[in-house]
């Protein structure tokens, strides 16, 4: 658990959750925020998810190739 890459993965997943919650909150509330930032929040969420998935795959690859 003290692995630096694992901690970066946890931070990336938390970033995805924060962006997702902001996007859902803006969508639920509607109004000017959703009209102005709704699409940008979705794009940011997809980017954050892609980064998190790449980090997870890197972690699995490194651990599977004798990096233990």
From TrEMBL:
<feature type="transmembrane region" description="Helical">
    <location>
        <begin position="6"/>
        <end position="32"/>
    </location>
</feature>
<feature type="transmembrane region" description="Helical">
    <location>
        <begin position="44"/>
        <end position="62"/>
    </location>
</feature>
<protein>
    <submittedName>
        <fullName>Twin transmembrane helix small protein</fullName>
    </submittedName>
</protein>
<keyword id="KW-0472">Membrane</keyword>
<dbReference type="Pfam" id="PF04588">
    <property type="entry name" value="HIG_1_N"/>
</dbReference>
<feature type="domain" description="HIG1">
    <location>
        <begin position="1"/>
        <end position="68"/>
    </location>
</feature>
<dbReference type="InterPro" id="IPR007667">
    <property type="entry name" value="Hypoxia_induced_domain"/>
</dbReference>
<keyword id="KW-0812">Transmembrane</keyword>
<keyword id="KW-1133">Transmembrane helix</keyword>
